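A protein record pairs a chain with a discrete description of its three-dimensional fold. The following entry can be read in just this way:
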Amino acid sequence: MRVQLTASGLGVRAVAAPPKQRRTFPRLRSRALNTSATTAIIFAAFSSAFFWAIGQSPIRLFAALYDGVLGSGFAFSETLVKAAPILLCSLATALPARVGLISVGGEGQLAIGAIGGTALVLSAGDRLGWLTLPAMLLSAALAGAAYGAVPGLLRAQLRVNETISTLLLNYIAAPCVDYLVYGRWKDPDSLGWPSTIAFPDAARLPTYFDTRIHLGLFLGLFAVLAAWFFATRTRSGLILDLLRSSPELMQRAGVSWARRTVVLLALGGACAGIAGIAEASVIEGRLQSGVGAGAGYSGFLVAFLARGRLLAILPCAWIVASLAAAGDNLQLSAGLPSSIVYVLQGFLFAAALIAQHRSAEAAA
């Protein structure tokens, strides 16, 4: 596809790619596969060394990791349950990245979305009938979008670095949840446990296949596919790519970078907000402290591993969710603490960094 800048604005027309251009795609695909294989090898090496260092057999622990993910139908379904919020939170990073922004705000946007959806449930109860569920999801999406738009406005109007602002906003959202569940929203019959009252049945997302797999997973799949279609099959998606690579050129063509910055951060926040209320509605059945803890940062890791390829978010989310699900099995089989999950995710992040650096050096 060739882009033409005209006096009237941005014009796009499709032309046949030259043969030399077409031959680059197999090479890019091969490079991506090599990078993925290198990442897997480095991750296995790091993990093995760590397991040896803590006095555990790497073979036994890798077997426990496998059992925790694919050892049974229940293990597989729980991996998909953990993938649901990670999928949605990955878009909180992947969407702003379309214009070159680095957002790490999924964790805070998830928490604020959980607050927004819970506020609707507590105020309306089940009086809305079948409208309760869509109203709850909409309220959560709007709350997450508003929280995502804040760093967007700061970036567009004041040039505040969005990485710093989204990270700092994460540390505001979690205490807001604590304030509510320890304070005015606390269930008086919870015997001191910081949580709201249980959500009514009308505010519970449906589950499927006699498991905890819920509607949030399918909303995440739909959101990723919709984002991919928008980014790769529409004129607006092409404009976003051009904004990332040539912002000054686009500004001369009359394309607003500031407006799209706010919109993309808000859309990412809306996705994370839906993830938050899905966790509160299905997994916990109420809002409580630590809702969806870690899913926002895991989503950032997924977006980083996908390297801007939106469809790659799907397998990457499953891999990261597998580590989270397998971590639960490691606690039971080897007596390791729950923090082992974050250690393994850190190794995966480091392995991906090293593999990408090696790939860049080989391509230079």
About this structure: Residues 5-23 have pLDDT under 50 and may be disordered.
